[in-house]
């Protein structure tokens, strides 16, 4: 079983967490103006790279807090975890 490093609780077993999807996906500014195709793209289409990806995770069986992580989608290894709002390595602020 993989250990996921919660920024508040430390390493915990992966069964304590829920995946929240790709991080930093902005909600549409005017959702009423979107047609069905645009809504489908917002809801279902994500980057899905082979490699590092910014993700949201929820520690549901622990502190019950959200955090952001950079995880390698090929190896499933977590490269970093941060509390929301922490500075991102490339300079932007994490959501």
From TrEMBL:
InterPro entries: SoxD, SoxD_sf
GO biological process, one term: tetrahydrofolate metabolic process
Gene3D superfamilies linked to this entry: Folate-binding superfamily
Record-linked NCBIfam families: soxD (TIGR01374)
One Pfam family hit: SoxD
One MF term in the entry's GO annotations: sarcosine oxidase activity
Protein name: Sarcosine oxidase subunit delta
